[in-house]
């Protein structure tokens, strides 16, 4: 079991460029969550999918951020026109989706916007 | 307003000592509480969850929940240098799909 895989581990973009972050959940897990971690805001929920369907995106900035889960083996988080304040570690987690199941986190993608 | 308050911000204990962390929620909809640990450069990893009043022990780790005051704590006995990490409490509720609301975190340093 390789755990949750996130790629790339580090990404540097220029202001105004697009960034796409990838997540491969643990095989068999039906729930996928995205969180963002910064020194100032801490760990914040962004969005989550259950059985590939978007369920809750209440934490997503309304502009420029979007997330998809085209199949059960991967999810993407896309940030358009990146800004310096988007710099953060973006974490993906998956769980079995049953009740209060443990969420298993990937190592994160550190995004730096210059 | 932060829905999950955590203290202290940082903590230093000698090897073999006891480390204690505290967490209080302001939202009575939260029913489940988790403790996560994050080593540098890694994602958070769950230590244990608790949802019933009282104590729950797993090895060197003991969690305590008081539902009336929405206070949860974590105690690590016989702390080891490898326990040095960031510790987060997190809360969730069934109606919100069990998404996690995290506390601000506590940085633990165990001095060898």
Can you characterise this structure?
- The complex is a heterodimer of chains A (114) and B (112).
- With 114 residues, chain A is an all-beta fold.
- Chain A contains no helices and 11 strands.
- In chain A, strands 2, 4, 5, 6, 9, 10 and 11 form a 7-stranded mixed beta sheet that branches.
- In chain A, a hairpin with a 2-residue loop joins strand 7 and strand 8.
- Chain B has 112 residues and is mostly beta strands.
- Chain B contains no helices and 11 strands.
- In chain B, the strands form 2 sheets. In chain B, strands 2, 4, 5, 9, 10 and 11 form a 6-stranded mixed beta sheet that branches.
- At the A-B interface, strand 4, strand 5, strand 9 and strand 10 of A face strand 5, strand 9 and strand 10 of B.
List the helices and strands and how they pair.
The complex is a heterodimer of chains A (114) and B (112).
Chain A: E1 5-7, E2 10-13, E3 19-24, E4 31-38, E5 42-50, E6 53-56, E7 65-71, E8 74-79, E9 88-95, E10 104-105, E11 109-113
Chain B: E1 4-7, E2 10-14, E3 19-25, E4 32-38, E5 45-50, E6 54-58, E7 61-66, E8 71-76, E9 85-92, E10 101-102, E11 106-111
Summarize, please:
Chain A is an all-beta fold and 114 residues long.
- Which structural class matches the secondary elements of chain A? mainly beta
- Overall geometry of chain B: globular
Nearest-integer average pLDDT of chain B:
95
Q: End-to-end distance of chain B, in Å? A: 37 Å
Q: H/E element string of chain B?
A: EEEEEEEEEEE
Beta-strand percent range of chain B:
over 45%
Mean pLDDT of chain A: 95
Unreliable runs of chain B:
none
Helix content of chain A: under 10%
Low-confidence stretches of chain A: none
Strand tally of chain B, please? 11
Coarse structural class of chain B: mainly beta
N/C terminus separation of chain A: 36 Å
Task: Give me the count of strands of chain A.
Answer: 11
Quaternary organisation of the protein chains: heterodimer
Most residues in contact: chain pair: A-B, 25 and 24 residues
What is the succession of H and E elements of chain A?
EEEEEEEEEEE
* Count of DSSP-assigned helices of chain A: 0
């Amino acid at each position: 079991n390789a755990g949750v895989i996130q790629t790339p581990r580090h990404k540097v973009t220029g202001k105004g460029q697009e960034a796409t972050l990838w997540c491969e959940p643990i095989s068999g897990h039906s729930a996928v969550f995205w969180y963002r971690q910064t020194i100032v805001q801490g760990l914040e929920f962004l969005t989550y999918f259950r059985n590939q369907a978007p369920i809750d995106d209440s934490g997503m900035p309304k502009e420029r951020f979007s997330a998809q889960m085209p199949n059960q083996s991967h999810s993407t988080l896309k940030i358009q026109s990146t800004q310096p304040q988007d710099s953060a570690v973006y974490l993906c987690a998956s769980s079995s989706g049953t009740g209060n199941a443990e969420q298993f986190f990937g190592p994160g993608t550190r995004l730096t916007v210059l | 307003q932060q829905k999950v308050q955590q203290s202290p911000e940082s903590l230093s204990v000698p090897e073999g000592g006891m480390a204690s962390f505290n967490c209080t929620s302001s939202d009575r909809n939260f029913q489940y509480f988790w403790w996560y640990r994050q080593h540098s450069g890694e994602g958070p990893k769950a230590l244990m969850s608790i949802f019933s009043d009282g104590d729950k022990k797993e090895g060197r780790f003991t969690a305590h929940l008081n539902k009336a005051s929405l206070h949860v704590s974590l105690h690590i006995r016989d702390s080891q240098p490898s326990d040095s990490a960031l510790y987060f409490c997190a809360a969730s509720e069934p109606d919100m799909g069990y998404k996690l609301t995290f506390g601000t975190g506590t940085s633990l340093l165990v001095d060898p």
